[in-house]
Design a protein that fits this description.
- An 8-stranded mixed sheet has the order 1-2-3-4-5-6-8-7.
- The radius of gyration is 17 Å and the shape is globular.
- The longest helix has 17 residues.
- The chain has a single domain, classed as Gcn5-related N-acetyltransferase (GNAT) (Aminopeptidase).
- It is an alpha+beta fold.
Length: 198
Amino acid sequence: MKSWFFNPTQPQARSETATLPVGQLQIRVATPDDLMNIAQIVAQSFHSQQGLWGWTFALFRVGIYEDLRHRLQSPTNHHICLVAVDAATEDQKIMGTIEMGVRITDAWTSINPGFPYLSNLAVHPSYRRLGVGASLLIRCEQISQEWGFQDLYLHVLENNHQARQLYFKLAYRVYKVESPWNALFLNRSRQILLHKRI
């Protein structure tokens, strides 16, 4: 299995609060053995365990697990799920994850068919603001170039200020903003499509 080591102290991966020691962060392709941990991290990042909807957390996590299991069992040439692991721990604890694939079309973006798209960037709460997310994004840029692409796209919710700050810091720019009527109808924050030329 191929792995990549990152130096989180490099400027493009530096957090504003702290960084991991050199060599502690290792990025590799996800395996079926990682699925439960990935599903937990993604669920924690995108679904609250508190309040009225907290009881649905387990269902949300199972849905993530099954979706990812299906994608890993039926791989395509242009899909990858990466994990950042803590090389300093004996069990190589998963610190974060991201997926990248090539989308054929998107209903409201008006981008030419066949563009690389990032999704499910999630970092374990214990490893946030240490450069894990930035390192995963940088590795995806490298893979995208290996696939022959020069552009990357992703969606972020308008009210996700920490994620937006990270993306803007890494030179992602607003490509398109969802209509306020869609967000109002769906009772959620608007989606912003970001783009980066690499």
